[in-house]
Amino acid sequence: MIVVMKSGSPEPEIARICTELQSWGLTPEKIVGKHKVVLGLVGDTIDLDPLQIRECSPWIEQVLRVEQPFKRASREYRHGEASDIVVPTLNGDVHFSEHHPIVITAGPCSVENEDMIVETARRVKAAGAHFLRGGAYKPRTSPYAFQGHGDSALDLLATARAATGLGIITEVMDTADLERISEVADVVQVGARNMQNFSLLKKVGAQDKPVLLKRGMAATIEDWLMAAEYILAAGNPNVILCERGIRTFDRQYTRNTLDLSVVPVLRTLTHLPIMIDPSHGTGWANFVPSMAMASIAAGTDALMIEVHPNPSKALSDGPQSLTPDRFDQLMKELAPLGKMLDRWATPVPALV
Ligand code: PEP
Ligand code: MN
Question: Model-level pTM?
Answer without folding.
Answer: 0.96
